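note to self: dont lose this again. the chain is below, predicted strucutre after it. 430 aa total, dont forget to put it in the shared folder this time
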Amino acid sequence: MRIRKLDADTRKNILEDLLKRSPNQYREYEERVQAILARVREEKDQALFDYTFQFDHAKVDASSIRVTEEEIEEAYRAADPELIRVIKKALENIRSYHEKQLQRSWFDSQPDGTILGQKVTSLQRVGVYVPGGKAVYPSSVLMNIVPAKVAGVDEIVMVTPPGKDGKITPNTLVAAKEAGADVIYKVGGAQAIGALAYGTESIPKVDKIVGPGNIYVALAKKAVYGHVSIDAIAGPSEILVIADETANPRYVAADLLSQAEHDELASAILVTTSMELAEKVSEEIDGFLKELSRAEIIKKSLDHYGYILVAETMEEAIETANEIASEHLEIQTKDPYDVMTRIRNAGAIFIGEYSSEPLGDYFAGPNHVLPTNGTAKFFSPLSVDDFIKKSSIIAYSREALEAIHTDIEAFAKAEQLTAHANSIHVRFEE
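---
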């Protein structure tokens, strides 16, 4: 893995390199996505059936597009009982963590008859996209459905691409059932996003779409935003590790590779103040690559978006981490909590050598749906907040309004909005 001395030019070049992975850079796919969405909007179910046969080589129709209870029961029989046990245990942790995020409506009343407040309401219907393709991610099922369930969403609609046999993998179905999906449909890709956004004969229109997917899914979510809400436009996975001379090079190397194996566009970066650690981590990576099953994918990922950066000071390392704003940030230093207090931009922060990134992916409880491509500067992890909306509450008595009505009228007249002023004035006419 390449080692670079960290300086202003290196940091600038890496940032530009990483941003090339953003879905916003793949404009050549946009026309195809728009065509798929337009056809789904026009032809509804028929478009879904045709695209599912074209892209997933599976035949579905109105009688088979929805997963049945019998199929879910079959999935439980086919799934590994040990995995089911682990899914249930992870689900408890995820639910417990997200329950702490719950917000309540609040009201504040004053003696003069003023009542102000905020009404918190869960969304009515949410669509959850679950990827298929290269890998199966029951963990992603849990992370997207559980916070919606905790928020009190009335109906959770899940979509996921079927295999050639027209079936969904057992692990995905078990995770969906355990998490609380109300209905599951066998459709994926941009066409599934279109179905959730516009509605078809089989699939109801939703209020919001969440969940990761490939470039077609990402661009489709971007295109339907406004018809529905979305969580974010997910980019490729990424990890950044801040480490000093006290870090274990074998742990650091293993953690970097845990993200590099996702796909060829994944990013894995170590920023360290120790050249000795940098060299040892590089050696450990070479050793692991001889053993790991996805070594070819990892090599391509590291060749394009993998870096070991050697900084002069910890302050420089932290500044670089804040500028990159990584999806996952591990801190393996002598005083990791001190470093943590100086981190401004990160999707999830893992503190100490036993807080490896996969702990967050599967089990700890915090959500693993995180902002990527530097968007941690202004986006947060998926949470209960994504599945609620808020309404302002305003109630004034005559006494309360009378005390301030001339102020409001003056403000309105200053903006030349005389009807605004009149709406207040008529209530105090002689």
